[in-house]
Amino acid sequence: MIDYENLHQLNKPLFDEYKKAFNEVLESGWYILGNKVKEFEQQFAQYCQTKYCVGVANGLDALHLSLRALNFEQGSEVLVPSNTYIATILSIVENKLQPILVEPNLATYNIDPTLIERHITPKTKAILVVHLYGKMCDMDSIMAIAKKYQLKVIEDCAQSHGAQYKGKYSGSFGDYAAHSFYPTKNLGAIGDAGAVTTQDEGLANCIKVLRNYGSEIKYYNEVVGVNSRLDELQAALLLVKLKYMEKITAHKRVLANIYFNNLKSDFILPQLHSDYIDVFHIFNIRHEKRDALKDYLLKNEIKTEIHYPVAPVKQKAMKGIIDNQVTPIAELIHQTTLSLPISYFHPEDTIHKVVEVMNKF
Ligand SMILES: *Cc1c(COP(=O)(O)O)cnc(C)c1O
Predict the structure, then answer these.
(1) pLDDT for the residue numbered 217
(2) pLDDT per residue over 306-354, tens digit each?
(3) Is the CB of 194 under 6 A from ligand 1?
(4) Pocket mutation for ligand 1, best pick of 64, 82, 86, 88 (most atoms within 8 Å of C-beta)
(5) How many other CB atoms sit within 10 Å of the CB of residue 358?
(6) How far is the CA of 349 from the centre of ligand 1 (A)?
(7) 3-state class of 32 per DSSP?
(8) Of 99, 234, 262, 343, which shows the fewest CB atoms inside 10 Å?
(9) CA of 54 to the centre of ligand 1 (A)
(10) What are the residues facing 338 on neighbouring strands?
């Protein structure tokens, strides 16, 4: 059986270094907000080419606290792509703001900048972009619209660690950028972890205060905060994985090229463009008989995933929140997309095998 993902296999090459890092934290006796968190924040900021990084507990909190820190009036509108993972939309709802869905471009699966302006109202305060599947959004167009209408920009970088747009890194464009280090992400931890990056010192400090009970000085509380700290142990493990990011991304790109060069034309492949460096968190294809294709692959011992099977507007939890918005493009993607194996642990010949089976469909 060819796994879609296998976290044991994925992390196995790093086990020795992980155990060393684990022991170091254990022996240090310092388990919350210590030197490892500080060091990771510095190195991850550098990796994203941003001035500041603040570690938090997970990706949803990174999004949630970013919106919270921007302090928009209740009921303000936030533009967000209609085909994103539910966490992006939850972060808006949690802050008592209204998500306004903007359809994606079918060539990139990312928010279509040409559709943004028609959704802007006097209540619009921000654009929350998502660099889906490991491809950056069209940031020149998005930043220009944000400037014209004085909107804040937040990037959801959960799937785009190391991706670039015109030479600039994912997480370095927005007022805030939210990162998830959920174990399956390209920079995955051994548990939950997240971070916020920003170029602005004041904005970085807001997240620092919010993540730690709203307190800058111990036992003195300035604002109503939460407990959402990046765990010291996860920071130590992330420092290990961060060193391998280039290798991980390079391998995923090799695997993606096997798909690009060999899959028959029946499948709609992701589109490449010279302005973008994609990191292939997910390698999706589209096919109108997606469900039959998924079954066929499973019968041939190949596991795949669907990102995502249900469009946000169709989620039960979104009743009364966004279910009155109409998003046919998102629904078309949700009905036809299929994610193929592309993990760091997959050898090249496994991907050739997947291609061979796919081409007989
Ligand atoms: C994984 C993911 C998140 C949430 O991250 P968690 O760390 O699981 O909270 C948010 N947005 C997108 C696009 C994601 O893929």
Answers:
(1) 87
(2) 999 999 999 999 999 999 999 999 999 999 999 999 999 999 999 999 9
(3) yes
(4) 88
(5) 24
(6) 30
(7) strand
(8) 262
(9) 17
(10) 285
Coil vs helix vs strand at 74: coil
Q: Which protein residue has the closest C-alpha to ligand 1 atom 15? A: 158
At a CB cut-off of 8 Å and minimum separation 6, what does 140 contact? 165, 166
- Which residue in this structure is represented by tokens 């036809």? 336
CA distances from 287 to 252, 268, 284, 353 (A): 22, 6, 10, 19
Structure-token pair, residue 304? 């795949």
Report the pLDDT value the prediction gives residue 220, as an integer from 0 to 100.
Answer: 87
**From the CA of 72, how far away is ligand 1's center (Å)?**
22
Residue 328's pLDDT is what? 98
d(CA 327, CA 259) in angstroms, rounded, equals: 29
pTM to 2 decimal places: 0.98
pLDDT at res. 219: 87
Report whether pLDDT(218) > 90. Answer: no
Give tens-digit pLDDT for 130-141.
999 999 999 999
Q: Which tokens in the block code for residue 100?
A: 């306004």
Give me the phi and psi of 90, to 5 degrees please: -60, -40
- What are the DSSP E strand ranges found in the chain? 52-56, 77-81, 98-102, 124-130, 152-156, 164-165, 168-169, 176-180, 194-198, 215-217, 220-221, 276-277, 283-286, 337-340
E strand spans, 84-165:
98-102, 124-130, 152-156, 164-165
Pocket test residue of 56, 156, 231 for ligand 1, highest count of atoms within 8 A of CB: 156
How confident is the model at residue 238, as a pLDDT?
Answer: 98
State if residue 58 touches ligand 1 by the CB under 6 angstroms criterion. yes
CB of 43 closer than 8 Å to CB of 238: no
Instruction: Quick: pLDDT tens for 22-37.
Output: 999 999 999 999 999 9
* Both structure tokens of 359: 């081409």
Cβ–ligand 1 distance for 87 under 6 Å, the answer yes
Q: What is the mean pLDDT of the chain?
A: 97
Residue of the CA atom closest to atom 12 of ligand 1: 158
